C-alpha cells in the first residue's frame, strides 16, 4: 500500500492511503480526544470532538472520518481547534444532567475527562437536559438516556459487532435517541444482553444493573472465561477481594471484543452467599462442618480402605469439562498412582466418543482444524445441528459478521428454526435424526459438482472412486419422503457451498448425540477432507475445557453409563466427584441416583452444595476459576491462562491442591507444589502441549495455539453407507422431544444456575410446541402439560412457536435436570431426543 | 379513536417489487404510506425482512423523516406555515381558526380520519403569506373567511 506523508502539529508523519487523521495521529503518539470513535467500529463522525484544523484550507474537519492526503498540514491544538472543541463539549454538557456525583461511570466517563482536559466547568449555555425515562426489567443492563450524547457507539456495536439490530436511532433533533423497535424496554427487543454496548458507552447512559460496586475496581486481572468453549479473554475487576465486574479483553484494539450475557454478567456466582466455605462430613446422617485436616484425613482413610479391601479399579474419579488442564492432568496421575484405578472420566453430559472416534478415524485428530476467527472470513458456511448463538455466542457473532460484512452464504441443516436461520441463504429442515440420509446425499451432490471435483486432493483418488460407486445408486428420489428435504434444495445447497473457496463446516451436539453420531461425524469430516485445504472444520464443543480434558486423556476412556453400570454391579465402591453435579448434568440422572446408593464412599468437591454433594459422605469446598491458576483449552485449540483474581472464598481450595493433599494422605504424594509446576510438566510430557508455558508469562492477553497433531496417523476418508436406514416412528409416543441449550444457561446450568442474574431471566420450565399441534391438543400458551416418556414424566408450561415443526417439541436443557423424562440413552434416538406423549392437565 | 384495521395483504406486492434492494427503503416506505395513508408499525418487521435490514433501522428511517407517519393520518393533511413571513402576516390566527374549526390541536387527527392538522417551519411560498397546504394543494393570502370555505370544501 502507498505511503502518504503529511504533517501533524509540524511533525512529519506517514500513513497508508485510507487511514484517517485520528488513526495516524494516535499511531504517532499525538492524542486527539474523541467520544464516538473506536478502532473496531466504522467511523461516523457523530460527536465532533475530534475536530482538527487543516492549515492549508483553513477549515475544521472531523479527524475520525477524514482520510489523510499527501502534503496535508494538520493542527490538533490550535486556538481555533480548541475553541470549537470547547463549544462542542459545552453543548453536550448543557444537555447533560448534573448527576456526575452519583453516576456509576464516575471517573471513567470520557465526557467528563474531555471536559476536564479542556477546562470546561460550569457552562454558560441555557441548560436543556433531555430526560427520557427508561424502564428495564432485565437483570443485566440499565439505560439512562438523559446521559446519552448520541455517539452511536451502542448502535454500531449492536449492528457491526454482535449483529442483532436490537437498537437504532429513533426520531430526530432533540428527541433523537437510541431505541428498540417500538421504543420498548430491552427485554422485548432482540437484545441478547451481551453488554458490548455497555462497554462501549463513553458516558453513564448504559450501565450494568445491580453491580456489586459503584465506581472503579482497584485492580483488574486478565484471565479466561470459564463458561463455554469459546474461551474469551476477560478482565476481572477486583475490589476488596471481590470480583465486582467483567470486561472483555483483547490483544488487538482493532479486533472486536464482544462477550455474551454469561461471560459478562454471570460472574455473580463467584461471590454467591451459598458458596461452600468449609469442608463437611456426614455425621449421624447430617453434613457437619469440619476442619480441612479432619476432612482430608477422612477422605484419605475412606479411599485407602476401599483400595486396600477391593484392590485395583474399585475407586473412580469423575469430573466435569470445566476443570483446568492442570487438574485434569493431576487427576489422571492421582488415579493411577494413589487410587490404583483406571476409572477417571470426564462427564461431558453427552457421548463424546461419537466425536472422538469419528474424527480420529478420519482426520486423525479431534477438535477444530483452525481458529474460530476463520468463521468470520469464510465465504460459505455449512452449519449442521448446532446453535452457535446460544451455545457459543462468540462463534455466532463471527458467522453473522461474515454474512453482514462479506456477504457470506450460510447453509443451515437443522430440524428447528434457530436465531441464525433468518440470516441464512438456505435452510434445510430434515426430520429428526434423518441427517445421515441428507448428508450422504449432500456428499453425492458435492462429488457431482465440477468445482468441487477439480479441487479434490490427489491422495484420495481411489477412495473417491469407491464413494462414487457406493453412492451411485443413492436413492435421491426418496430424499423428500425420507427427510422432508427436497432434492432441488439439497442440490442448491451443494452448489452454494461450492461457490467460494473459503468454506467452513460447523457442527454440534445435534449431530454428535444422534444414535449414528459417529458415522455422521465421519461423513462431515470426509466432506471437510475432500473439500479444499482452506476449509474450516469446527465441532462446537459446549464446555470451557472439553477439548483440554480430552487432550489430558480423561474424556474418552469410559462413558458415564459404563461408570454407572460398574457401580451398580458393585465393582466400583468409592467415587470422588471433582467439580461436577452428575445428578443434574448427566442425561438420565435418575439412573445415576440409584447407583449412588450402592457406593461405600462418595466424596464431592464443588463450589456449591449441589444435588450430588447433598448425598455425599464428604464434601470439600473448591475454588472457582477466579480464585485459582491453570490453563483452559478452547474449542478451537487455544490454550489460555486462568489467573487468580481474588483469594479463595471461605476456606475453599483449588481442586488441584485438594487432589495433591489427598494424594499425600494416601501415602502417594505427587511431586507438585503449584499449578505452574503442573503446567510445566504438561509442557514436557504432553507432546501436543509443548510450548504452552508461554501463556504463563505476565503479558495480559496471551494464548498458545495448539498445532494439529504432527504425529497424525494416516488420515482416511469415510465411505458412507449408500442407502442408510432411517428409524421408524413410534406410534405410542407421537412426539419427539428434542433437548437443547438456551443462551442464559450453559448446558444444564452446572455453573450458570448459581448466577442470580442468569438464572433470573428464564426461571420457569417450558416446552416449545408447534401451533398446529397445540390446536389439535386444545392447549394454549402457558398451559401446564404433562410429558410422558418410556422412562418417566415431567410437568411443564407450554410455549407455542412455529420454530419447531409439527410432531417435534423443544425442551430447554436446564429444565431437564432432575427429570425422569430422559433415559440415559435412547437407542433409537440418541441422547438429545426422546419420544413422548402429551397429556393435558385439567386445572 | 378506534384503531384502523390493517390489511397486511396489500403489503405483499410492494415488498415483492423492492425485495432485497436495501437502497430502496425510502421509495418502499412511500408506497406503503400511499397504500395505507400511514406506515402501520406492524408492517416494519416484514419490510425489514424483505430488504434484509434490522427492524430498528427501518423504524429509525421512518421516525427521522417528517413525511412518514406511524400513526393513521386524516384523508386531508393540512399543513399550516409557521415561517417568519406567514407569522408577520397573521399565520398564528390562521392556525387558531383552524384549530377551532376542526376542534384539533397541532398533530392531531379528527375522529373520522378526515383531517390532520400539522404545522411546518416554512412552505417556501412566502410571497403568498400567510399560507397553508391541504395535501398537495397550496392556499395563499389566507384570511378568516377563506379558511371557512376551504375547510367546507373538504368536509364530507
Describe the structure.
The complex is a heterodimer of chains A (843) and B (156). Chain A has 843 residues and is an alpha/beta fold. Chain A folds into 5 domains: 3-94, Ubiquitin-like (UB roll) (Roll), CATH 3.10.20; 125-269, Alpha-Beta Plaits (2-Layer Sandwich); 280-351 and 546-705, Rossmann fold (3-Layer(aba) Sandwich), CATH 3.40.50.740; 368-539, Dimethylsulfoxide Reductase, domain 2 (3-Layer(aba) Sandwich), CATH 3.40.228; 735-840, Barwin-like endoglucanases (Beta Barrel). In chain A, 29% of the residues lie in helices and 19% in strands. Chain A is built from 27 helices and 33 strands. The longest helix of chain A is centred in the middle third of the chain and has 19 residues, at 292-310. By secondary structure, chain B is of the alpha+beta class.
List keywords for this structure.
heterodimer, A: 843 residues, alpha/beta, Ubiquitin-like (UB roll), Alpha-Beta Plaits, Rossmann fold, 5 domains, 7-stranded mixed sheet, 6-stranded mixed barrel, 27 helices, globular, B: 156 residues, alpha+beta, Arc Repressor Mutant, subunit A, Glutaredoxin, 2 domains, 4-stranded mixed sheet, 7 helices, 4 strands, 42% helix, 12% strand, elongated
Strand order of the largest sheet of chain B: 2-1-3-4
Largest interface: A-B, 17 and 13 residues
The coarse silhouette of chain A is globular
Order of helices and strands of chain B: HHHHEHHEEEH
Structural class of chain A comes to alpha/beta
Strand and helix map with partners:
The complex is a heterodimer of chains A (843) and B (156).
Chain A: E1 3-8, E2 11-16, H1 21-27, E3 51-54, E4 59-62, E5 73-75, H2 79-94, H3 110-118, E6 141-143, H4 153-161, E7 167-170, E8 177-180, H5 196-200, E9 206-208, E10 219-224, E11 233-239, E12 242-248, H6 261-265, E13 280-283, E14 286-289, H7 292-310, E15 315-319, H8 325-339, E16 344-346, H9 353-360, H10 373-377, E17 380-384, H11 388-391, H12 393-406, E18 409-413, E19 426-428, H13 435-447, H14 450-454, H15 461-471, H16 479-483, H17 487-498, E20 503-507, H18 509-512, H19 517-530, E21 536-539, H20 546-551, H21 560-569, E22 574-578, H22 582-585, H23 589-597, E23 601-606, E24 618-621, E25 630-633, E26 638-642, H24 655-665, H25 675-685, E27 704-705, E28 735-740, H26 756-761, E29 766-769, H27 771-777, E30 784-788, E31 793-800, E32 808-812, E33 833-840
Parallel strand pairs in A: 1-5, 15-16, 15-22, 17-18, 17-20, 18-19, 20-21, 22-23, 23-24, 28-32, 29-31
Antiparallel strand pairs in A: 1-2, 3-4, 3-5, 6-9, 7-8, 10-11, 11-12, 13-14, 13-24, 25-26, 26-27, 28-33, 29-32, 30-31, 30-33
Helix pairs in contact in A: 2-3, 7-24, 8-24, 8-25, 9-19, 13-15, 13-17, 13-19, 21-23
Chain B: H1 11-18, H2 25-36, H3 44-51, H4 55-64, E1 76-81, H5 84-88, H6 91-102, E2 115-120, E3 132-134, E4 137-139, H7 144-154
Parallel strand pairs in B: 1-2
Antiparallel strand pairs in B: 1-3, 3-4
Amino acid at each position: 500500500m502507498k505511503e502518504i506523508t503529511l504533517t501533524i502539529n509540524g511533525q512529519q508523519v506517514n500513513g497508508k492511503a485510507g487511514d484517517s487523521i485520528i488513526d495516524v495521529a494516535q499511531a504517532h503518539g499525538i492524542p486527539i480526544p474523541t467520544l464516538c470513535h473506536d478502532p473496531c467500529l466504522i467511523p461516523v463522525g457523530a460527536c465532533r470532538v475530534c475536530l482538527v484544523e487543516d492549515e492549508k484550507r483553513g477549515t475544521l474537519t472531523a479527524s475520525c472520518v477524514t482520510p489523510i492526503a499527501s502534503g496535508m498540514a494538520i493542527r490538533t491544538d490550535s486556538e481555533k481547534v480548541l475553541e470549537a472543541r470547547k463549544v462542542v463539549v459545552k453543548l453536550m454538557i448543557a444537555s447533560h444532567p448534573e448527576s456526575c456525583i452519583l453516576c456509576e461511570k464516575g471517573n471513567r466517563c470520557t465526557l467528563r475527562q474531555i471536559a476536564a482536559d479542556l477546562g470546561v466547568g460550569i457552562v454558560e449555555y441555557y441548560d436543556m437536559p433531555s430526560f427520557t425515562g427508561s424502564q428495564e426489567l432485565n437483570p443485566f443492563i440499565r439505560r439512562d438516556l438523559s446521559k446519552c450524547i448520541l455517539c452511536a457507539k451502542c448502535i454500531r456495536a449492536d449492528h457491526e459487532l454482535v449483529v442483532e439490530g436490537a437498537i437504532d436511532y429513533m426520531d430526530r433533533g432533540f428527541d433523537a435517541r437510541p431505541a428498540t423497535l417500538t421504543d420498548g424496554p430491552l427485554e422485548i427487543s432482540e437484545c441478547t444482553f451481551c453488554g458490548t454496548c455497555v462497554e462501549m458507552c463513553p458516558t453513564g447512559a448504559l450501565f450494568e444493573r445491580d453491580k456489586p460496586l459503584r465506581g472503579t475496581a482497584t485492580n483488574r486481572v486478565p484471565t479466561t472465561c470459564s463458561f463455554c468453549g469459546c474461551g474469551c479473554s476477560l478482565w476481572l475487576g477486583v475490589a476488596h477481594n471481590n470480583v465486582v465486574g467483567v470486561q472483555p479483553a483483547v490483544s488487538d484494539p482493532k479486533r472486536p471484543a464482544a462477550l455474551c450475557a454469561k461471560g459478562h454478567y454471570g460472574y455473580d456466582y463467584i461471590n454467591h452467599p451459598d458458596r461452600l466455605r468449609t469442608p463437611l462430613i456426614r455425621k449421624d446422617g447430617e453434613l457437619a462442618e469440619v476442619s480441612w485436616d479432619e476432612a482430608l484425613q477422612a477422605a484419605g482413610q475412606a479411599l485407602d480402605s476401599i483400595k486396600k479391601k477391593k484392590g485395583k479399579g474399585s475407586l473412580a474419579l469423575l469430573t466435569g469439562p470445566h476443570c483446568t488442564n492442570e487438574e485434569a492432568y493431576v487427576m489422571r496421575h492421582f488415579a493411577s498412582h494413589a487410587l490404583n484405578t483406571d476409572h477417571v472420566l470426564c462427564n461431558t453430559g453427552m457421548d463424546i466418543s461419537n466425536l472422538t472416534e469419528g474424527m480420529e478415524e478420519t482426520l486423525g485428530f479431534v477438535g477444530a482444524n483452525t481458529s474460530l476467527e476463520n468463521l468470520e472470513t469464510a465465504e460459505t458456511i455449512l452449519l449442521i445441528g448446532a446453535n452457535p448463538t446460544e451455545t457459543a455466542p462468540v462463534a455466532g457473532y463471527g458467522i453473522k459478521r461474515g454474512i453482514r460484512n462479506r456477504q457470506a452464504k450460510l447453509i443451515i441443516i437443522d430440524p428447528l428454526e434457530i436465531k441464525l436461520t433468518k440470516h441464512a441463504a438456505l435452510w434445510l429442515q430434515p426430520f429428526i435424526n434423518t441427517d445421515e440420509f441428507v448428508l450422504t446425499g449432500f456428499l453425492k451432490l458435492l462429488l457431482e459438482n465440477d468445482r468441487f471435483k477439480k479441487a479434490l486432493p490427489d491422495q484420495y483418488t481411489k477412495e473417491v472412486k469407491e464413494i462414487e460407486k457406493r453412492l451411485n445408486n443413492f436413492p435421491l428420489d426418496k430424499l423428500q419422503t425420507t427427510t422432508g428435504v427436497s432434492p432441488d434444495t439439497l442440490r442448491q445447497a451443494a452448489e452454494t457451498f461450492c461457490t467460494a473457496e473459503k468454506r467452513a463446516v460447523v457442527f454440534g451436539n445435534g449431530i454428535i448425540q444422534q444414535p449414528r453420531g459417529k458415522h455422521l461425524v465421519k461423513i462431515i469430516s470426509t466432506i471437510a477432507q475432500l473439500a479444499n485445504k482452506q476449509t474450516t472444520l469446527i465441532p462446537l464443543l459446549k464446555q470451557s475445557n472439553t477439548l483440554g480434558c480430552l487432550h489430558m486423556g480423561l474424556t474418552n476412556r469410559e462413558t458415564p453409563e459404563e461408570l454407572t453400570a460398574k457401580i451398580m454391579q458393585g465393582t466400583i465402591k468409592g467415587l470422588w466427584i471433582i467439580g461436577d453435579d452428575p445428578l443434574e448434568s448427566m442425561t438420565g440422572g435418575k439412573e445415576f441416583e440409584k447407583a449412588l446408593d450402592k457406593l461405600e464412599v462418595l466424596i464431592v468437591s464443588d463450589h456449591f452444595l449441589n444435588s450430588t454433594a447433598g448425598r455425599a459422605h464428604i464434601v470439600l469446598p473448591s475454588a472457582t476459576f477466579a480464585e485459582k491458576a491453570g490453563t483452559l483449552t478452547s474449542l478451537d485449540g487455544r490454550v489460555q491462562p486462568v489467573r487468580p483474581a481474588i483469594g479463595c472464598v471461605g476456606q475453599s481450595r483449588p481442586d488441584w491442591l485438594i487432589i495433591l493433599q489427598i494424594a499425600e494422605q494416601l501415602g502417594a504424594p505427587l511431586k507438585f507444589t503449584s499449578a505452574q509446576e503442573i503446567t510445566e510438566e504438561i509442557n514436557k510430557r504432553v507432546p501436543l502441549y509443548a510450548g504452552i508455558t508461554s501463556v504463563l508469562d505476565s503479558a495480559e492477553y496471551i494464548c498458545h495455539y495448539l498445532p494439529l497433531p504432527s504425529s497424525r496417523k494416516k488420515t482416511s476418508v469415510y465411505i458412507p453407507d449408500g442407502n442408510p436406514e432411517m428409524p421408524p416412528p413410534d406410534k405410542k409416543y407421537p412426539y419427539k422431544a428434542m433437548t437443547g441449550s438456551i443462551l442464559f444457561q450453559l448446558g444444564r446450568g452446572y455453573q450458570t444456575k448459581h448466577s442470580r442474574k442468569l438464572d433470573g431471566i428464564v426461571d420457569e420450565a417450558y416446552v416449545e410446541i408447534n401451533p398446529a399441534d397445540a390446536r389439535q391438543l386444545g392447549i394454549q400458551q402457558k398451559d401446564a402439560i404433562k410429558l410422558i416418556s418410556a422412562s418417566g414424566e415431567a410437568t411443564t408450561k407450554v410455549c407455542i412457536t412455529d420454530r419447531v415443526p409439527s410432531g417435534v417439541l423443544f425442551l430447554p436443557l436446564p429444565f431437564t435436570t432432575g427429570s425422569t423424562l430422559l433415559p440415559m440413552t435412547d437407542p433409537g434416538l440418541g441422547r438429545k431426543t426422546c419420544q413422548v406423549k402429551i397429556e393435558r392437565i385439567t386445572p | 379513536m378506534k384503531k384502523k384495521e390493517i390489511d397486511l395483504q396489500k403489503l405483499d406486492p410492494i415488498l415483492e417489487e423492492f425485495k432485497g434492494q436495501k437502497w430502496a427503503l425510502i421509495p418502499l416506505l412511500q408506497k406503503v404510506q400511499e397504500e395505507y395513508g400511514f406506515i402501520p408499525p406492524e408492517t416494519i418487521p416484514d419490510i425489514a425482512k424483505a430488504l434484509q435490514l434490522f427492524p430498528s433501522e427501518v423504524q429509525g428511517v421512518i421516525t427521522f423523516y417528517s413525511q412518514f407517519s406511524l400513526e393513521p393520518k386524516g384523508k386531508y393533511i393540512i399543513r399550516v406555515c409557521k415561517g417568519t413571513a406567514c407569522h408577520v402576516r397573521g399565520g398564528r390566527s390562521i392556525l387558531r381558526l383552524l384549530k377551532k374549526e376542526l376542534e384539533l390541536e397541532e398533530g392531531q387527527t379528527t375522529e373520522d380520519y378526515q383531517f390532520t392538522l400539522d404545522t411546518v417551519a416554512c412552505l417556501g411560498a412566502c410571497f403568498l403569506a400567510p399560507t397553508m397546504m391541504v395535501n398537495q394543494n397550496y392556499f395563499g393570502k389566507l384570511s378568516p373567511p377563506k379558511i371557512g370555505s376551504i375547510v367546507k370544501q373538504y368536509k364530507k
